[in-house]
Amino acid sequence: MGIASNTVRRVMMGVLMGVFAGVVPASHADEGMWLLSNPPLERLKRDHGFAPSSDWLLRMQRASVDTGASGSFVSPRGLVMTNHHVASSWIHQLSTAERDLTRDGFLARTLADELPIPGAEVSVLWETQDVTDAMKKATAGKSGPDAAAAIRAAISELEKSEQARTGMQCRVTTLYGGGKYELYRFRRYTDVRLVFAPELAAASFGGDVDNFEFPRFSLDCAFIRVYENGAPVQVEHFLPWSATGAQENELIFVFGHPGSTERLLTMDDLASERDVRLPARLRSLWRLEEKLEAFSSRTAENARVAGDLLHGVANGRKAFTGELGGLHDPELMRAKWDDEAKLRQAIERDPALASHVGDSFERLAAALQEEAATFEDDAIIQRAFRGSRLFQAARTLVQLGAEWPKPSAERLSEYRESALPEVIAILEAHAPVYPEFEKMILAQGLSHLAEHFGGGRPEVLELLGGKSPVERARELVDASTLADAAYRKKLLAAGPEGLRELLESSADEPLLSLVRSLDPKLREIRARTEGGIDAVKRDVYARLADARFAAFGTTQYPDATGTLRLSYGTIKAYQQDDQQIPAFTTYRGLFERDAARDDEGFTLPKPWNDAKSKLNLDTPLNFVCTADIIGGNSGSPVVNTKGEVIGLIFDGNIHSLSWAHRYSDEKARAIAVDTRAIVEALRVVYKADSLVAELTGVK
Amino acid sequence: MGIASNTVRRVMMGVLMGVFAGVVPASHADEGMWLLSNPPLERLKRDHGFAPSSDWLLRMQRASVDTGASGSFVSPRGLVMTNHHVASSWIHQLSTAERDLTRDGFLARTLADELPIPGAEVSVLWETQDVTDAMKKATAGKSGPDAAAAIRAAISELEKSEQARTGMQCRVTTLYGGGKYELYRFRRYTDVRLVFAPELAAASFGGDVDNFEFPRFSLDCAFIRVYENGAPVQVEHFLPWSATGAQENELIFVFGHPGSTERLLTMDDLASERDVRLPARLRSLWRLEEKLEAFSSRTAENARVAGDLLHGVANGRKAFTGELGGLHDPELMRAKWDDEAKLRQAIERDPALASHVGDSFERLAAALQEEAATFEDDAIIQRAFRGSRLFQAARTLVQLGAEWPKPSAERLSEYRESALPEVIAILEAHAPVYPEFEKMILAQGLSHLAEHFGGGRPEVLELLGGKSPVERARELVDASTLADAAYRKKLLAAGPEGLRELLESSADEPLLSLVRSLDPKLREIRARTEGGIDAVKRDVYARLADARFAAFGTTQYPDATGTLRLSYGTIKAYQQDDQQIPAFTTYRGLFERDAARDDEGFTLPKPWNDAKSKLNLDTPLNFVCTADIIGGNSGSPVVNTKGEVIGLIFDGNIHSLSWAHRYSDEKARAIAVDTRAIVEALRVVYKADSLVAELTGVK
Which residues on A lie below 8 Å from B330 (Cβ)? Predict the structure, then answer.
C-alpha cells in the first residue's frame, strides 16, 4: 500500500477540497506530473533523447483507467491491472466471515468465475478540450461567493450540455489553480468484476512497518475486468506485457491520476499547511486509528470488518507524518523561500505583472487566517462519521432530496447532473453493512463531536438525543432502515420530487433525522469555504500562474488534480545515510525477510511457502524509479519507450512524501512491482495459467 | 495492568497536579476511600457487623507499603507483594537485550540472587498527626499567589522541622481539598531488590484488549524485598497468608494509595474535565501511543526498550477513555447534578454557611475559564519530552541548580528539603539510557511543540536550533554527557553552590541548554497555575468541604490524594447486559482463552504450557469485589476480617472507570489476583518452593 488506496485518495481529495494550486516550475531533472495535452517533449528529447509521438501518447491515455486511483488495460479483453490496495475496498466488500477474499486472495479461473463488484465503476479519459476562455469569462469581474457561484454554474452547464451532446461522461477540471480549464470526456464502465487478488499478507507484505519504505517486497497487484452488455469489453488501446522487463537506468513513463500536490503554495499557505491543516488532520487520524485498533483487537471478525478502513487510516497517518516532517525540515523550507523570492522579484520587475498580481499575497494571507480559525472545527464536523455506510447513505439521501429538484447549476457540485449516475450507483449497490462496526463508527464520531465542541453544547446534545454516544449509536443503527438496498432503491425510484416527499414522510428514521440536524451546519461550512478561502485561492493562484507563465515560460505542469498525468524518470538506486540502496529487490529477499521477522505483517501465506522451492528466487520483485508521483498514482503502469508495461506503481519511499511540496531525486523514489514478479507468482504460486497467457500472449 | 503502574500513577498525579477535592458523601453501600484516622466504623458495624479494632488498623497501616503505587509486607523478612505492572519499570530497568526479565520473568532462589533495583525506594506510613490548625492559620486572610506561597512555605517548614526532630521522612497532605491537613511520618527504604516476577505474557495476559475487562486471567503479581544495612529488614507488621482463601460474598478490606478521584468537583469543574482536560490528555496520549507503536514495530529491541512506556500510555489512554465515557453518560451527569443541587440547597438554607461559601461557585467557574484557555498549551510544554531519561536528568539538574541554594520554603515544592533525598537518589541511579529511544522521544516532543505552537514560532525555532526535529534530537543525544551516572554524581557532589557553578561552566551541554531555554516558561506555568486555579480551588473546595461537614456530618471520606486509604466491600458477581458475570475465574479459563485466541497478548509462555497438566485448573485465578479503588491502588492487598491476605488488587473493570467521578456498585468492580493462584503458580510453574514456604509458613 502507500500512495493512496481508494479510501485514502478520497480522504485526501476530501480533506484538501478547496486547495487549488498554481504552475510548478520543473527545475529538477525528471520532475513533473505533466498534462497529456502539454507533454514535456523538449525536455525529454534533451535529457533522454526520446520524445513520444502523439499516437503513442493517445494509446497511453486510452489504456489508462481511472479506478478511483489508477490502473491500465493490459489485454484487449478489458483486463485491468491495478494495486491490491486500490482494489482492496472492493475485495473487502466481496468478502464475508466465511469467505475472506482479503485474507485468502481470489482467482477466477474462467470468465464465469469473475465476481461482479457492486457499485464499482471505472472510466477512461477519451477526449480533452481546452475550455479556459469560456470559464474565465464566467467569473470575470466577480469575487467571493459570486465568483464561486458563477464558476460552479458555468462548469455544471457545460458538463450537462456536453454530456447531452456526446452521451459521454463530461467533467471540467481546473488546472494551474484557475489558469487553465480542460473539459474531459470519459468512457464510463459500471460492470466491473474481480479476476485476481493475492492474499493481503503477500500484497502488503511488511504492513504498516514497511509501508513507504524500501527495500520492499510486496506483490501489491490485482486484476479486474471491465464488462459491457454482459461481455468483456473489447479495447483497442492497451499495454502489451514486456517480454524482457525493466533494466536499471532505463527511461520509464508512468501514467496515472496523482491526487493532489501543493508545490506552489505561497509560504503563508505552506505555513498554514504545516501549522494548521496537517496537525489537525493528524489529530483526527491518531484518534480514529486508536478507535479502530481497539475495535479490531476484540475479535477476528471485527478485525476483518474494520481492516480496510484501518489500513487506509494508517496509510494516511504515515503519509501526512512524512509530509509534515518535510515542512519541519529547514532545508526544504529554505528552498521554498528561494522559489517564492524569485517569483516575487520577477513580479516586482514587471509593472504589468505587479499590477495583475496586486495584493494577492496579502489577500491570501488574510483568507488563510480566517480559514485557520475554523479549519479543525469544520473538518471534524464534516468527517466525524467517516467509514459508516449508513451515515453516508443517510447524508447522500437527505442532500439529494434537497438538491435533485433544483436546476443542476444551482446544486451542491457533487449532485450536479454529470455526477448523479455515480451517486445513484453507490446508493443502489448491495454493499454489506456491519451493525457492530457501524455502531462503533457512529459512537466514536458522536464522542469526537462532544470532545471537540463540548458535551454540553446544545448542538451536540441534539445529536445525542439525551443518550450517551454508545447508547445513541446503538439506537441509530438498530432502528435504521437504510441498510436495506431495496429500500434505498425504492426511495431513488421516486425521482426528484418523490424522493423529497418520501424523506419527509420517514421522519422516524433516526439516521435521516440525525443528518437533518447536521445538514444546515454542513451547508454553512460549504458555503463559507467555497465563497471564502476557495474563491480567494482560485483568484490568487490563477494570477500567480499567469505571473509564472510570463516570467518562466509556458512549459510548466500544473499541481496534481486527480486527473490523468504523465511522469517519467529512470530506474535508479540511491544513497541513504551511508548505505547504497539497490534499485531492485527479488523473491529471495522476500523469503529472507519473512524468515527474519516473526511479527504480524511479515508472515507469508501457506501457498507461498509451499511454492518456494519452485519459484525462481532471482526474479525481480519491486524496483524504484525517479518518476514524479503522489497519492492517486497507485496502480499506475510503468511503461518503457516501446509502450510496453514493465511495472506497477504502488508506493513511494519515505523521502518521497516531501514530494507533496517539492520534488527532489536525491533520495526520494517511486516504488513499483516488477511485472516479471507478477507473472512468476501467477504461474508458480497461483497456477493461473490462463491469466498468464492473456497477459503475455504466450500459452 | 490497569489501575496505575508507577508510570501511570505519576502521569495522573502530574497531569492532575493542582486538582484538589472536597468531602465525598458516601451514600452507597460500600463506597469510600477512608482515612485510617477516620475509619467508617459505624457503617461497617451497621452494614457488615464487623468493626476493626485500632490495633488491627495499625497493623494494616504499617503492613502497607508505598511502592509508587501500592504493596504490602507479606513476611516478617521484608518481603513485599505488589503487581507486576507496578514493578514493571524496575523489571524493565534491570533488563538488557540479552537478559529480558520483562519477557522471561525472574526468580531469585536465594537471598544472594535477589537483584538490587537502582534508584528504587519504598516507604511505610508510620505515624499520622492532624496539623489542620497550623496550616489554616498560615493562609488565613490570604488569596491568589500570596496564599499559594504561604501554604507552600508552611508545609515546607513543618516538614523540615519534623524531619530534623524525628529523623523520619515527613510529608504534609492536603485533605478534603483544604478542609484538613495531616502530617505523615514515613519509614523510607532505599535498598529494594527484585525477588520474583512472572513473564509479562502471564502477568498481563490479554494485554490492552483485556485491560480493564472481566472475566480476566492475569497473574499480575511481583515480589520485592526491602533491605536495611545489607540484610532483609525485619518487620513486626505484615499480612499473614490466608490458608483458606477468599469466598464469594465475604467482607474484604483493601489498603492502598488511590491516586486521585474527582468526586466532588462542582458541575463547572466536571464540565471542564469533560470538555477541556480529558480531551487534551487523550489527544496527547493518542499521538504518543502512535509514535511509540511505530518505534516499537521497527525492531524487537525497540519493542523491548519502549515497552514499559507504551504499556503505561495505553493504560492511561484506556482509563481516560472510560472516564470520559462516564462524563458523556447523561445518567451519571444527572446524578451529579442532583448531588450539587442538594449541596446548594443546604448552603442556601443556612445563612452562616451561605456567607462562608459566598461566591465560591462563581469564582471557581471564572478560574476554570482561565485554566481552559491555556490548559492544553501548558500540558504539552510540561510533558513534551515525557519518557526521556536524559531530558528528565537535565531538567532536574537545571532546576535543582537554581533551587538548592534557596531556603527550602522558597523552592519549587518538589525540591523542598523533605523531598530532596528522592530527587538525588533518582539522579544518581544507574538506570539504562537507550540512545535510539531517547532520540525518538526528543524528536517527537520537538515535533509536538512545533505542531501545536507553530513551526515558525521563535520559541520553537530556538529549541530546534535551525534543525529539523529528528536532526536536533540526534544532536542532543549524541553530544550529551548526562547518560553517565558518574558525571551526574560528580555534579551533585558539588553541593548547592557548587552545582550551580558547574552547570554554568557546562554551557555546551546541549540538553542542559535546551532545558535552560525551556525553564522560564515552565516556571511561568507553575507560578500562574499555583497562584491561579490551584489557589482558587484550594480555597473554594475547603469552603465547600466545610459546608458538607456542616450539612451532612463529619463521617465523610476525602477525595483520593495518593495517600494511604482503607476501602471495603464484598466479593460479588454482577450482571452485564443479559449476562451474569461470575465473581471468580480459574486457571481452566486461562488455558481456554489461550486456546481460543492466537493474537499477541493471548499467548502463554512455554513454562505454562509445560506445567499445564500438573496445575490444579480449578484454582481461582482472579476475582472481583465492590471495594472502592482507583489508579494508585494497584498492588493493594485484599484482606479478610482476620487480617489475612487473600488477594492482590490489580485493576478495575470497565465500569469502574467512572469511579473517578462517582461510585456505583451496580456493575463496577475492582479486580484482584487470588492468592491461591499465586501459590499454585509459584509451586507448579516456577518451582519456587522457598518463596512459597516464606509466604505460607508451610515447607
Answer: 464, 466-468
